Amino acid sequence: MTATSNLIDDAPLTRFHKKLTFFASGGPFIDGYALSIIGIAFITMTPSLQLTTAEIGLIGAASLIGIFFGGAIFGWLTDKIGRHKMYIADLIALALFSLLNGLATEVWQVVLCRFLLGMAIGADYPIATSLLAEFLPRKVRGRLLGATFVVWAVGAAAAFAVGYLLRDIGPDAWRWMVASPAIFAVVTLLCRLGTPESPRWLLSRGRQDEARAVIKKVYGEQYDLSDISSDVEGESKQGRFTDIFKGELLKRTLFVSIFWTAQVIPLFAVYTFAPDLLASFGLTGDANLYGGSFLISMLFVIGGIPGLWLVEKIGRRKLLLWSFGVIVVALGIPAFIPNVQAAPLFIALAIFALASGASSFLEVVYPNELFPTEIRATAVGFGTAISRVGSAASTYLMPVAIISFGAAGSLLIGALVSLVGLLATFLLAPETANKSLHELTGKKAPGMMPAELAKEGSPL
């Protein structure tokens, strides 16, 4: 093999890549499941614990606040001590805090468990996606990284199905619901055992012998360090948290933070309070509330199918621009329909789900492609953290928004937030499709100046 064979970036897709993608998908599945199951758990939790509106909002936001701290702290820690150790530890935490949540007897205990659960969820974003990105060939990197996040919507859909099945087991149904993520955490943990450390990360720490051993184990004895195109070129290089705020990386951090936040604010508000939102449309009964919530969650999954094809076909930037544009129009129109009825509101929400599902996975694709190995997990963790500030606020305020502005007004707020994401993408987003990590994060990595983007032609 030669130094130009670019083992990781240009290698054919193998069974190892598929297995690693499947293992990495466990975290997003649990995330979608755990964050969505709480919306249904509130139906029996509210009378059981005599929750106030403020307490409902706080419980809904607690896990998102936890994700803020988990992403920021453990993303940085993942770059320091390695992907593999954290890859296992966070699943143990997910299982533990889910079980404790089911045993809670006071509101503060539920809030604390949801917060700690959120920290574990936030940790998995930078851990699993950084590890996966550093193994994947560039031709399928966007698609397979994205596939792990589409599984988020599968987890959310599963939550509504499980919630429906458990709804009639009595006043303690909520306990079984909030404890159930532990089952998926244990299964994912068992699958991940034995996963190798990223050779890119090992090289960034100057551990060449270990990196060589991983390469030979994964790809065969005929491969060596000369066959890996590394953005750190094999030298020991330890990144600092502040590196993501310097020079060109500051622009990338700004872009990732804004577009990620704009995506998750309406998404988490809808998922956490889907039954309440549908009730505000005028829908009633289990078939409408549970069934409607399940349908919306499945539309996120369906939207992800063409999205995973388009992400490599038309690129990341155009896909994100189009999805934001569709969401702005879909969520904004009902506000201008006098005495709008349930059908137009539900259609608007359905279109939002399809468009959001088609591009929400870029939240893990873009940051993993835009930052070098020594700070990749830090950047993903920071993007996760910042996005959760907005999503926690929107989740806490969602019950108030429904009461104060009504269904159409609540959707309009989502449209305005998405408009901010559209503008940020237009001004700051680069195109990263079909480029090696070395091209994107090396010293000559392309910048993101608007003038340079203009040379690429119209974004739409």
TrEMBL record:
The keyword rRNA processing does not apply. The keyword ATP-binding does not apply. Its main location: membrane. InterPro entries: MFS_dom (IPR020846), MFS_sugar_transport-like (IPR005828), MFS_trans_sf (IPR036259), Sugar_transporter_CS (IPR005829). Pfam families: Sugar_tr (PF00083). The chain crosses the membrane at residues 20-44, 56-77, 86-104, 116-137, 144-167, 173-195, 254-274, 294-312, 319-337, 343-365, 377-397, 403-429. Residues 20-433 form the Major facilitator superfamily (MFS) profile domain. It is a multi-pass membrane protein. It comes from the Bacteria. Keywords: Membrane, Transmembrane, Transmembrane helix, Transport. It is found in: Cell membrane. This is MFS transporter. It comes from Arthrobacter parietis. The lineage of its organism: Bacteria, Bacillati, Actinomycetota, Actinomycetes, Micrococcales.
